[in-house]
Amino acid sequence: MKKISEILWPIIGLGAVIVSCYLLYGQLQTLSWVQLQAAFAAIPLHHFLLAAVSTLVAYAALAWYDRIALIHLGVRHISWLFVSLCSFTTYALSHNIGASVFSGALVRYRAYTSKGLSAAQVAVLVALCSFTFGLGTLLLGGFCLVYDPYLLARLDTLLPSLLTNPTTARIVGIAMLGFVGLYVLGSILHFKPLTIRSFKVEYPRPSIMLRQLVAAPMELLGAAGIIYFALPDSLNPGFIPVLAIFLASFSVALASHAPGGLGVFELVFLAAMQINAEDPSAAAQKAAVVAAVLIFRLFYLLLPFALAIVVVLLFERSRLAGALSSRKGSAEVPEPPLVAPGLEPSKIEHRLGKTPV
Fold it and tell me: How wide is the angle at C-alpha 250 spanned by C-alphas 97 and 257, nearest 5°?
């Protein structure tokens, strides 16, 4: 069954990319390269800088995910620099390649076992980091839907009207916040551990839970801020709508198992921006949205991906060099002498009853 799922999910992800790109092409076929260049040129320099700062905030929060999990495990001897590099590499690779193809657990396992963690500890760390991300999505998504239940109506072209009406949206938002509240109570009141088959996850201490409630929204706010600062003022609906659209687009992209959410993220985001196709400036508006999404991909996905590959190569090179040097050192250890120090061969022979020649 496991082998089937390992084959099935990449196929589903590839299918999602093909279908999404086909639908996206239908929306963008009137878009010209000149319009896209103009959209990039219209973004002020300080907005690029703010988008870059948002990226740093997002990845700093992701590093905090790992740090929180290590504190939960009682591990404090690993430096912040090592944790930051490990977290950065993990998310940069898994965001681009797709968790179904290249799990972040592999990177974490290679890195943290070199610092003395067991496989079971790494498994708990990965689970807690994933849960922290989900907790942030539920918290911010629930807040957005309760604050403005009409936000879900932006997806009326992709979802049935039953799911996009304000009443349903508010109920969904309350349910999401309710789950977060239940988790908070579980941590404070020390509920029994959550057991899934042979895997057991204990509710963290309140201090860990509070850190999660800060780190998770911080990462998502930073990631959404990249697109927010890249959108032109004329199309920007405000930070909370952009945040809600980003959460929906990113969640669907992750669920699709498409590598990097390619096509899926763009399709959902563009649909939620509700650009009127009959508007004479529709093509220019689409170009501005596509430019903002491409900047998000550049800052949050592509540049970190390139840096992550360098980090992995340097790490594996250092591990290989260490292994070779230890092997060389063991090969150079002299064999123990056949004769004890301070005792001449003639004396040994004499003690054995032999007369030296």
Answer: 40
Name the helix (H) or strand (E) containing 195: strand 194-196
Position 6 scores a pLDDT of 54
Owner of token pair 């004396």:
347
91 or 18, which is more confident?
Answer: 91
Tokens of 147: 């604050």
Structure-block tokens of residue 301: 């996905």
Question: Which of 192, 87, 181 lies closest to 138, judged by CA?
Answer: 181
Rounded Cα–Cα distance for residues 21 and 12 (Å):
14
CB atoms within 10 A of CB 181: 13
Q: Which pair of tokens denotes residue 356? A: 């030296």
Mode of pairing for the β-strands spanning 194-196 and 199-201:
antiparallel
3-class secondary-structure state, position 354 = coil
**What are the extents of the domains in the chain?**
2-325
- Kindly state the average pLDDT of the residues 4-32: 62
Cα–Cα distance for residue pair 140/221, rounded to 1 Å: 9
Contacts of residue 125, defined as CB under 8 A and 6 or more positions apart, other chains included, come to 66, 69, 70, 73, 108, 112, 117
Rounded CA separation 325/52 (Å): 40
Encode pLDDT of 230-244 as tens digits.
Answer: 999 989 999 999 999
User: If you write DSSP's letter for every residue of 234-266 in order, what string do you get?
Assistant: TT---HHHHHHHHHHHHHHHHHHT-GGGTTHHH
Distance CA 273, CA 280 (A): 16
Q: Report the number of secondary-structure helices (H) and strands (E) in the chain.
A: 14, 2
pTM: 0.82
Which has more pLDDT, 77 or 257? 77
Q: In the structure encoding, which two tokens stand for residue 40, read together?
A: 């990039």
CA-CA-CA-CA dihedral for 338, 343, 344, 348, to nearest 10: -70
